[in-house]
Amino acid sequence: MTAPAISNDTISLIGNTPLVRLKGPSEAAGCDIFGKCEFANPGASVKDRAALWIVRDAEERGLLKPGGTIVEGTAGNTGIGIALVANALGYKSVIVMPETQSREKMDTLRALRAELVLVPAAPFSNPGHFVHTSRRIAEETEGAVWANQFDNIANRRAHIETTAPEIWEQMEHRIDGFTCAAGTGGTIAGVGMGLKAFDENVTIALTDPHGAALYNYYANGELKAEGSSVAEGIGQGRITANLDGAPIDTQFRISDEEGLFWVERMLADEGLCLGLSSGINVAGAVALGKQLGPNARVVTILCDTGFRYLSSLYNAEWLKAKGLPVFPWLEQ
Ligand code: PMP
């Protein structure tokens, strides 16, 4: 038996997540589909990696001093990562979040000692948008840095330097395709760039939810959104600095219903309780696997734990109110 070695600090528990072959999706695609278990990070999401890289980068640039404050605007998971990293390294955290995000994320951030600032959901062009609000708070707070996950490429560097090499090793250097959705774009761009450096023939596919503009951008150069999605943390309307230069070969558009289908199957057939972005990613991986053919080996990201969404995705009333199908076992 090989067990992981003792870590000297909690920061080094970030990353080195397991990779699992997903039975149902592999069967549906007729090839091998694997999920990178990012819910196994200490903050239970893929964003711990970006949070750590952003904080380390600010330290290296001399912007963040002992006892300083990290300010970020986030759909939640980056805030959780930043709060954890801040506590572990002796910093304070201020997290600005749209009030539409899940109750569990807000409670988690408060529990993690972050100062939480909730703002109404607003378009990016509105100065009250959570990203602009977080920048202003950082500017007005002494000793504070703005994490700026969307346009700070320390975010995608985390994936170039850790997620991609981990996948490459875990796949024993044999991988045909990788796909995931984009929030900041750090994961798709960083893993894409990292994997292409190992093997330029790996197909990198963007899996876009409805309501995002990137599918059209990569398909025909037009940043145009259609429809909407209840998925948290994904769906981008612009080319962030992290997305700039991302090696996207092809793209899929996935509905919430398709994503929920896989969230349900992953729970019922594989015992994995995941968030909706993971379900959308799995749907994208199945589509990519079908396109690449029977011997393909495709990897996607299982972004965060479903325990973060007990009052939404896993709640019959919430699903009904959104006009979404309800998992049969929730009706008891
Ligand atoms: N899924 C969830 C649940 C997230 O919180 C995020 C981060 N916003 C993503 C996926 C997308 O990751 P990235 O920001 O690296 O594009």
From TrEMBL:
<dbReference type="Pfam" id="PF00291">
    <property type="entry name" value="PALP"/>
</dbReference>
<dbReference type="InterPro" id="IPR036052">
    <property type="entry name" value="TrpB-like_PALP_sf"/>
</dbReference>
<protein>
    <submittedName>
        <fullName>Cysteine synthase A</fullName>
        <ecNumber>2.5.1.47</ecNumber>
    </submittedName>
</protein>
<dbReference type="InterPro" id="IPR050214">
    <property type="entry name" value="Cys_Synth/Cystath_Beta-Synth"/>
</dbReference>
<dbReference type="InterPro" id="IPR001926">
    <property type="entry name" value="TrpB-like_PALP"/>
</dbReference>
<keyword id="KW-0663">Pyridoxal phosphate</keyword>
<dbReference type="GO" id="GO:0004124">
    <property type="term" value="F:cysteine synthase activity"/>
</dbReference>
<feature type="domain" description="Tryptophan synthase beta chain-like PALP">
    <location>
        <begin position="13"/>
        <end position="304"/>
    </location>
</feature>
<dbReference type="InterPro" id="IPR001216">
    <property type="entry name" value="P-phosphate_BS"/>
</dbReference>
<keyword id="KW-0028">Amino-acid biosynthesis</keyword>
<dbReference type="GO" id="GO:0006535">
    <property type="term" value="P:cysteine biosynthetic process from serine"/>
</dbReference>
<keyword id="KW-0809">Transit peptide</keyword>
<keyword id="KW-0808">Transferase</keyword>
<comment type="pathway">
    <text>Amino-acid biosynthesis.</text>
</comment>
